[in-house]
Write a structure and sequence with these properties.
Elements: H1 15-41, H2 43-50, H3 56-72, H4 74-87, H5 90-108, H6 114-117, H7 120-148, H8 156-183, H9 187-194, H10 196-200, H11 202-214, H12 220-227, H13 235-240, H14 243-278, H15 283-297, H16 299-311, H17 313-339, E1 345-350, E2 357-364, E3 370-372, H18 381-399, H19 402-409, H20 415-431, H21 434-445, H22 453-469
Helix pairs in contact: 1-5, 1-7, 1-8, 1-11, 2-3, 3-7, 3-20, 4-5, 4-7, 4-20, 5-7, 5-11, 7-8, 7-20, 8-15, 8-16, 8-19, 14-15, 14-17, 14-18, 14-20, 14-21, 14-22, 15-18, 16-17, 16-18, 17-18, 17-22
């Protein structure tokens, strides 16, 4: 496949067309992330609604466990839809995942609560959460591969970084919709019925995104290998039963995506839960703090994506993991000071009658006695925004270049399947379980910083394995697979 006069391989999309591809892919992916994360953003509101009353801690941890299930099943969605994407096409696979995600999210907005339906409510919520996780497991790989297979080799980090923005953008939009809905009604009304609105809005977002995506064509690289009979007849077997590719999958998981996953969730979701549950910052204010920090930080995804086209993906990802490990504890200690609540411990108590465990953030009063921490009255909001923003920069460092790396690491005929599995294990399992593991470790040790040991350990592991074994890929010419020269 020869090159055009502009240096882009024949079959690659021209500049104006690339932005249409990115817009169509990013809008759908952002909506899927919005659907996925609005569940987590409303944890403080929905946990007492969907679980038995009388034990707020049990409800919160049970809700976080339901939230985590969506992450755990993502690798299964990656395998199922990745296979479809490598057999049938990238476009078809992420049309299906988008429809499942949008429908499942709308259903949450229609569910009865525990008060009206008893245990049916949390069980139905769990089932819908599983559907969400399976759908997202197929979405990301499709969107990433679709964009990457339209763009020239020397700008892949820059262009795919716009897909990377969608995860954080989805979180931001979920927080924005929640805040807008809360501000339009009383607290009682929001807890009574207003929480349903952010979920139901997904129906309109789904319709718009499906309309856009239906007008998209299949990726040029997949179209070429399919017409030439070069697709894999058994993508799962080819991806994981052959040692050369399985080795790349394992190195990509432990040497890149596992560390990237915990840095992402620590810098945004764990920071949110930490402020709400341990530092006792007002939940609405904590949402605003994270939303502002995320908004300021989002442009840096493209900064580090573009930088990876120049100096390589590996250096930036490894640097982000290492800096995070070295600075997390000082940052979270600074967050505790900025909250102004002097939380010194997290105590757990067991109810002698029910056996339920409650978690209490503990501070010291003027007499030196331990007392339960009350809501932080005068937190230093600018400082908290800054401290979360710094963590978002780490997220941008590890996440901005990761899509380009994963696309370049695997051959076209099994690319969707191969890259989806390490991505979703790294993000869905290692990263997604972080809030639940972090808060549980804090409770078990009575140490409010102990929850950071988990992401620090995983990021350290990734830094070591990645530094030793991860191959630099930013010079890879994926168009050469179909005869292109770039």
């Amino acid at each position: 496949m020869a090159s055009r006069a502009d240096g882009i391989p024949m079959g690659a999309t021209a500049e104006y067309g690339i932005w249409r591809v990115i817009l169509a892919s990013a809008v759908g992916t952002m909506i899927e992330w919005y659907d996925f994360y609005i569940f987590g953003s409303l944890a403080a509101v929905l946990s007492p609604i969907f679980y038995p009353p009388g034990n707020q801690t049990f409800s919160y941890i049970a809700y976080l466990a339901t939230f985590a299930v969506g992450f755990v099943v993502r690798p299964f969605g990656a395998l199922f839809f990745g296979r479809i994407g490598d057999l049938v096409g990238r476009k078809y696979a992420f049309l299906v995942t988008l429809s499942i995600m949008g429908g499942a999210t709308a259903l949450i907005g229609m569910l009865p609560t525990y008060k009206t339906a008893g245990w049916f409510a949390p069980m139905a919520l769990l089932g819908i959460r599983i559907l969400q996780g399976l759908a997202l497991g197929g979405e990301y790989g499709g969107a990433t591969v679709y964009v990457a297979e339209h763009v020239p080799d020397h700008k892949r980090g820059f262009y795919t970084s716009f897909i990377q923005i969608t995860a954080t953008l989805g979180l931001f939009v979920s927080l924005l919709v929640i805040l807008a809905t809360q501000s339009s009604m009383s607290t009682a009304d929001f807890q009574g019925y207003g929480w349903r609105i952010p979920f139901l809005i997904s129906i309109f977002m789904l319709a718009i995104s499906l309309y856009i995506r239906l007008k998209m064509k299949e990726s040029p690289i997949f179209s070429h290998i399919k017409s030439a009979g070069m697709t894999s007849a058994q993508p799962l077997k080819d991806a994981f039963a052959k040692w050369d590719n399985l080795k790349r999958v394992m190195i990509s998981l432990f040497g890149a995506t596992a560390g990237q996953g915990v840095v992402w969730y620590c810098g945004q979701f764990y920071a949110l839960f930490y402020m709400q549950t341990i530092l006792k910052v007002n939940p609405t204010l904590a949402n605003k703090i994270v939303a502002v920090a995320v908004l300021i930080g989002m442009p840096f995804f493209t900064v580090f994506g573009a930088l990876s086209d120049r100096i390589g993906r590996k250096k930036i990802i490894m640097a982000g993991c290492l800096i995070a490990v070295l600075t997390y504890i000082p940052i979270y200690k600074a967050m505790e000071r900025a909250a102004g609540n002097n939380v010194v411990s997290l105590w757990s108590t067991r109810n002698a009658v029910t056996g339920a465990i409650s978690l209490t953030a503990v501070t010291v009063d003027a007499t030196g006695a331990f007392v339960a921490a009350k809501e932080a009255r005068n937190p230093n909001v600018p400082m908290l925004v800054l401290l979360v923003f710094v963590q978002v920069i780490y997220v941008c460092m590890v996440y901005g270049p990761i899509a380009a790396y994963l696309v370049e690491a695997f051959p076209a005929k099994i690319r969707y399947t191969s890259l989806s599995l390490p991505y979703h294990i790294g993000n869905g399992v290692f990263g997604g379980l972080l809030p639940l593991i972090g808060l549980s470790v804090c409770a078990a040790t009575h140490n409010i910083y102990a929850g950071l040991y988990y992401p620090m350990a995983i990021a350290s592991l990734t830094f070591i394995i990645g530094s030793l074994l991860l191959k630099e890929t930013h010079g890879t010419k994926i168009w050469d697979e179909v005869g292109g020269m770039k």
